[in-house]
Every structure is written in C-alpha cells, then in structure tokens.
Amino acid sequence: MTMTVEHTLLTRVPDALLIGGRWRPASDGATLAVRDPATGAVIKEIASASVEDGGAALDAACEAFPSWSETPARVRAEILRKAFDLLMERKEDFALLMSLEMGKTLAEARGEVAYGGEFLRWFSEEAVRAVGRYAPSPEGHGRMIVTQHPVGPCYLITPWNFPLAMATRKIAPALAAGCTVVIKPAELTPLTTLLFARLLEDAGLPPGVVNVITTSHSGAVSEPIIRDPRLRKLSFTGSTPVGVRLLEQAAGGVLRTSMELGGNAPFVVFEDADLDKAVEGAMAAKFRNIGQACTAANRFIVHESVAEEFARRVTHRVAELRVGRGTDEGVEIGPLIDDRAVSKAESLVADAVERGARLRTGGHGIDGPGTFFEPTVVTDVAAGSDILREEIFGPVLAIVPFSTEDEAVAIANDTEYGLVSYVYTESLSRGQRMIERLATGMMGLNMGVVSNAAAPFGGWKMSGLGREGGAEGIHEYLQTKYTLTPSPFA
Ligand code: NAD
C-alpha cells in the first residue's frame, strides 16, 4: 500500500460536521486529531462538535422527520439499496480507511464492509414489510386495526471497534422505519462514519435525515440531546458502564432505548468436540478484530480430558500469528486501539499468572511505535482471576479446565454479561441442552462467529436491551398503534 493511496483517500474524507445537509466546522472552531494506532501518527484533524452543534444536529433531524416519515417505504428502501451498491463499489476505500483509523487488517476490514453492507441490503428489503394487521374483536362488535409508526428522531452512538458495521446496523433500520437520526461515532475512529455519510448523500438521501457529529466531548454534547423531549429514541453500542449512565439520562424522557453493551463470552469445549473444528472456531472467536469485539470469546472452558491437547494446538497457532500494521501484506494481528488497552491486557495476564496460571506464549506489550500486544495463551486460569470477570478486549486466550457438564454451565453463566456463548460438542442432545442452559442472547453451536444481518443480534443480562438485525431490528425504530372501530355490521 503506497502512502499516496492512503493520502488521497484521507483527503477525500470530510473533516466537518454534517448538519441539515451542510458540512460545517464546529461552532467554536474546535478540532480533534485522529491517529493511526499502528504508528501513533495523526492522520486527520476533524471538527469537534460543541453542545450547540449537538443541538443544531437534533434541530435538523426534527425538521427532516415529517417529510422523511411520510416518504413512501419503497423510496426509502431504494435509497438504502443504492447505498449498498455504492458501498460495494467503494469497498476498498472503506476497508483501507478502517484499517488506518482502527488498526484491523485489510482482510478483516473487507469482511466488515461485507457485513456492514448487509444491513443496508437487509433493511432495504424490510422497509416495505413493516406492516400491521386488521382483525375482528373476539366478541364481534369491533374491528381492531394495528399500525406501525416511526418512533421519531433518534440519537445513535457507536463504538470504535467496528466503525462501519455499528453505524449501518443502526442507520439502516432507522431509515427503513422512517426515522431521522443524529449519529455520533467514537472519537477514536470517526472517519468511516464521515465517509459513509458522504456516500449516503450520493445515494440520494435528503438533507437532515442523517446528521453526523464528531466530538471529543461525548458526555457533554450527548446529555442535552438525550434529555431533549423531541428525541424519541436512543440507540447505543459501547461499554456497559456508559450504557448504564445513558439509560439513567434516557429515563427522564421515557425514551425508547437499544443497548448493545459489553460481553464476557464463554467458549465451551466438551470432551466429545471435534478438536480441529474447535481450534478453528477458537481462533476466529478470539482473534477476530485483534480480540477487540464484544462477541470475542473471553473464557475458554475446556473439558479436562482435552484441555492440554486443545492448549497445545491453539498455542502452536497463536505463536505463529503475524503481528503488524493492518495494511501490510500477510499481517494477521494489528495494533490495539491505544496505550490503555495494552496496559489492561498486560495487567490481566499478570494477575492470572500471579494466581497460578501458566503463560504458554506472549503476555506482553510490544515496544512502539504503535500499540501492539503479543498474541497470548494462558492456561489453568484460577477461579477469581480478573481475566475471567472483565472483558479482555485484546489477543489473549485464557483457558479454564472443567470436569462435568454442570460445572461447565456454572462457570459459563458466572458473569453479569450475557451476549454470546460458543459451544463445541458433537452430541446433539448436549448441544440442545446448552441452548436452554446458557444465559446468553446468542450462541455459536460449533461455530466461532455468529454475526449476520438477517439475525437478531443482542444480549441478555447486562449485555443489553433490544436487538439489531433480523426481522426484529426494524421494530426498535417503530411504535405500535391500535385503533378500535365498530364492526361494519353493527
Ligand atoms: P465506550 O462505552 O467507551 O464508548 C462507546 C461510545 O460512547 C463512543 O462513541 C463514545 O464516544 C461514547 N461515549 C463515551 N462516554 C459517553 C458519555 N458519557 N455520553 C455519551 N457518549 C459517550 O465503548 P468503546 O470503548 O468505544 O467500545 C468498546 C465497548 O463496546 C466494549 O465494551 C464492547 O463490548 C462494546 N461493544 C458492544 C457491541 C454489541 O453489539 N453488544 C458491539 C461493539 C462493541
């Protein structure tokens, strides 16, 4: 990848806020710097919205709402479909941009473009199917009409780890339902959303339907938007502590909320698993996105009779992973997002080792430039270790042995999170038992990756509220009205 290609792409990314169809600087002229985590270098300076800009973005979304919500579903659908087609044409631009601002490899970034794009295609298809029903009342005197209506202007907040897919997973169903939005991408990786907003303009989206605010003052800018009575929906993807705080703010206005929060996924390998498949699944579930996914397997719970063999095989694979800048050929593991992420991974490994775990490979940050961490395996992790309780969000695979199925279930469910679980077993009845016994909103049964635009993504317990994707996804942006009329024969 030449510097010229990167440079040309970066100059094409807007550096301003998009409010009511106009690209403009922050009202106070403030900017924020976006860095490449592989080098630490600033790659672009962009506008940093003030509280006033946040208010203006909400004004624009409110102004655009009446006409967008009355736009025929077919027209809205076709704009989404056009956006999908344009994204496929511009796939390489988006992949490179994500690799530059977030650090993931180009191969993974291309995968995210494919995944993120599917939400545009899926919800272009769902837009025309948000229908209601007509039914006689049971006693026969009335007729019940059930209709679906867009909830109103929405505020969307996205995290840094999947800069495109987290945006399309919210924008596409909102637009399909007839809602207008203000989106605030993460300060660490805002460029992809800016480039995507430009793509939406090219797809024919009217001004004010999608407004983008980038800011280094997320809390201060967001709170007045969330507390504004004109806002009707908050959709947040990010960490559980921030989600809890936003739910408190949303309570005042009884806002509809969707919360896609943190995870602590168990990856259970039974003694009857196909170990080749389990190792393959483990590599995907753990090392995808450099371990920085809410769905990342956090705890490998492996039957004691196969734990050593599993550890030996994964250690062999992990030790060979090639670490480097995501844009470089052959690299499999990019940098972590920042210094804090490196220190966190390091201290989680150190705590596990202090409590008796065996370090099989890796375990340390790599000297800069960039914020890299060695792909790591620790085995025999003791109960109570921090690594079993906290989201690792890094390339560290931690193994805990178990002896009975009940014990595996108890360990797997011993967390306040409940986003996703992974189970490897060749036994059908055991697989079915796990579906019923593991307390997570999603499960990979002999699969290491579950995300799919056609499926309801979301968590149980403190991993969140609501679902994104699938037939469920559009309902997060719709509200139901029931009307009773007399029977025409009364
Ligand atoms: P984060 O909670 O720090 O930030 C998420 C977003 O919230 C960012 O845009 C950030 O700027 C904003 N934010 C932070 N403080 C805020 C405040 N006080 N008010 C308003 N906005 C605020 O999370 P992160 O570090 O960007 O992302 C990683 C986390 O996201 C992990 O916990 C991960 O599991 C979770 N995540 C969940 C899903 C899911 O679908 N469940 C998907 C991806 C990431």
UniProtKB/TrEMBL annotation:
One of its GO terms (molecular function) is oxidoreductase activity. Its EC number is 1.2.1.-. Gene3D superfamilies: Aldehyde Dehydrogenase, Chain A, domain 1 (3.40.605.10), Aldehyde Dehydrogenase, Chain A, domain 2 (3.40.309.10). SUPFAM superfamilies: ALDH-like. It holds the Pfam family Aldedh. It comes from the Bacteria. CDD domains: ALDH_F5_SSADH_GabD. Belongs to the aldehyde dehydrogenase family. This is NAD-dependent succinate-semialdehyde dehydrogenase. It comes from Demequina litoralis. The lineage of its organism: Bacteria, Bacillati, Actinomycetota, Actinomycetes, Micrococcales.
